[in-house]
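Below is a filled-in request sheet from our internal design queue. Each sheet records the structural input a requester submitted and the sequence that came back. We keep these sheets so that new team members can see what a complete request looks like end to end.

REQUESTER: design group, bay 2
PRIORITY: normal
MODE: inverse folding
CHAIN LENGTH: 562
BACKBONE (tokenized):
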């Protein structure tokens, strides 16, 4: 019996050792090596450090101008998103404003109509061939182009961070703290500025960092709404990456952008470690909405809240309406419901060419979301059960995509695997259907690991001990006791990853296979002035389908949180 046990143990050890080696290979091959290879190829093309690409970039007025535009956009978004986002969450949860249910629906619309769908909606509403541009006589075709157009679109898109995260911090404030301040004579304005806003400080600073990073790394919005005179660093990276002679300059700019992102995220991590400034009373009471006593201020806030709501939800409603309109009505600025039809929907579902982008994106998004959830269930369990330098190193390596913009990740993969590479068995991955899937896995790795690790850490250890005492095997313990507890969160993470990848553009535009274009690339192509009118109308159908999936996923996630 003992001899059999001794022989069996090495056999059992083969599986975890093999999995660990496979994990190390995947981390090095797809997370570490592409970035090191990109730096080596760019900075040391002949084996020695060559400062020429950096000096050429620094000496280029176009490159420095795009870098300045990105920093200007990021800094401006930090302010505009903070002002608008804070106003929205105060209107929803702090002040008593009429029509709060309608306002909540409108303010949540960026969670449903976002990314490439939202940019496309703004373009066809206010762009050179937009509905509003055609509707208003004498309005210049370029009136909604440049810095201000990009800033407005990204500002309204960026409020989703406040709705998702900062709003939770506001709701967690103990109302007893506010009442205590009121009892000692503090006015409502003083309570807001001295009690409420300081409690939100960590969340506000973290959200500001997210807005800044979103601004400096924006690609689709400046490409479509920036016009010919507003170019950002990411649009220049994309332009340089299209030719082999300038691809090294694209890599240098991507490294610049990566360095800026790393600094911003390090600041965010430092802020996060400071914790939350919230009340710690034993029995917390829910936040009670405050009434604005001044009639003038109350009317002004109410009007502003509803005007913002209309602007916020207009792109979503426009996309739905445009999907039923004939293309002639769209270009003429005519809104006539009697002309509505299901022709565009029929065109999507009745032809292979029409349905292929939808199936392509669903396939990529579903596969990447499923694979990453399964991997992170194992890795998250490993990290929480075995806290040592080995697992800490794995966790740090898997967080690398947090610190890198999508363009840098894409260029690293594109330039590393464009030739035979022994790390992947001598295969050339560039130009294949696999590289985009790998890129999607990299994008969603940090978020998935963070959520699943937090779920493991929050589980009651007594359940596991009780199951062990009853003689449950490790397999039965995990799948019959732990996994059912994790399942709601696992499904939520899967769905959030799925809807995030469904219309992804920034990475897809570099890595997609020309025969299998994902929805993000198709939607972007539809915004081109040279695009086929029928293709433009089909893009609205794709957008509606994306929003329906996003709505169902978000409703499911909210129900799981209750």
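RETURNED SEQUENCE:
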């Amino acid at each position: 019996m003992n001899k059999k046990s001794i022989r069996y143990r090495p056999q059992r050890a083969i599986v975890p050792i093999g999995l660990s080696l496979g994990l190390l290979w995947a981390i090095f091959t797809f997370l570490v090596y592409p970035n090191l290879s990109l730096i080596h190829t760019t900075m040391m093309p002949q084996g020695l450090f060559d400062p020429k690409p950096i000096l050429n970039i620094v000496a280029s007025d176009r490159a420095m101008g795009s870098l300045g535009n990105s920093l200007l956009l990021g800094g401006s978004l930090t302010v505009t998103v903070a002002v608008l986002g804070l106003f929205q969450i105060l209107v929803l949860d702090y002040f008593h404003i009429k029509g709060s249910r309608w306002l909540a629906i409108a303010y949540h619309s960026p969670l449903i109509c976002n990314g490439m769908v939202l940019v496309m909606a703004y373009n066809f509403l206010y762009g050179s061939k937009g509905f509003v541009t055609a509707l208003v006589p004498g309005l210049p075709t370029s009136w909604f182009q440049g810095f201000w157009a990009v800033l407005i679109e990204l500002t309204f898109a960026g409020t989703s961070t406040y709705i998702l995260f900062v709003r939770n911090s506001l709701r967690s404030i103990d109302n007893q703290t506010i009442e205590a301040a009121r009892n000692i004579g503090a006015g409502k304005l003083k309570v807001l500025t001295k009690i409420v806003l300081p409690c939100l400080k960590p969340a506000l600073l973290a959200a500001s960092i997210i807005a800044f990073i979103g601004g400096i790394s924006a690609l689709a919005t400046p490409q479509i709404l920036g016009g010919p005179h507003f170019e950002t660093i990411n649009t220049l990276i994309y332009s340089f990456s299209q030719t082999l002679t300038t691809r090294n300059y694209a890599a240098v700019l991507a490294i610049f952008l990566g360095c800026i992102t790393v600094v911003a995220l390090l600041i965010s991590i430092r802020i996060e470690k400071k914790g939350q400034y919230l009340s710690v009373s034993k029995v917390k009471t829910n936040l009670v909405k405050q009434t604005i006593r001044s009639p003038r201020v109350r009317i002004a806030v109410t009007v502003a809240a509803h005007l913002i709501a209309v602007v916020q939800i207009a792109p979503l409603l426009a996309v739905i309406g445009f999907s039923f309109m004939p293309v002639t009505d769209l270009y003429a600025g005519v809104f006539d419901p009697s002309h509505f039809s299901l022709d565009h929907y029929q065109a999507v579902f009745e032809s292979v060419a029409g349905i292929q982008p939808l199936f392509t994106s669903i396939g990529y998004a579903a596969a990447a979301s499923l694979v990453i959830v399964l991997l992170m269930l194992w890795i998250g369990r490993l990290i929480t059960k075995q806290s040592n330098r080995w697992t800490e190193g794995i966790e740090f390596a898997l967080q690398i995509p947090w610190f890198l913009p999508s363009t840098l990740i894409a260029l690293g993969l594109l330039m590393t695997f464009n030739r035979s590479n022994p790390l992947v068995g001598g295969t050339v991955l560039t130009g294949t259907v696999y590289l985009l899937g790998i890129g999607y896995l990299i994008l969603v790795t940090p978020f998935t690991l963070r959520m699943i690790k937090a779920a493991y850490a929050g589980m009651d250890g007594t359940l596991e001990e009780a199951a062990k005492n009853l003689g449950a095997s490790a397999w039965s313990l995990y799948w019959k006791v732990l996994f059912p507890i994790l399942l709601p969160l696992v499904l939520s993470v899967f769905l959030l990853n799925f809807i995030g990848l469904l219309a992804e553009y920034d990475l897809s535009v570099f890595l997609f296979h020309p025969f299998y274009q994902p929805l993000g690339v198709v939607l972007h192509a539809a915004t081109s002035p040279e695009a086929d009118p029928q293709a433009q109308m089909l893009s609205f159908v794709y957008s509606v389908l994306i929003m329906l999936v996003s709505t169902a996923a978000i409703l499911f996630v909210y129900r799981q949180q209750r």
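SHEET NOTES:
- Residues 97 and 171 are 16 Å apart (CA to CA).
- Residues 276-283 have pLDDT under 50 and may be disordered.
FILED BY: M.R.
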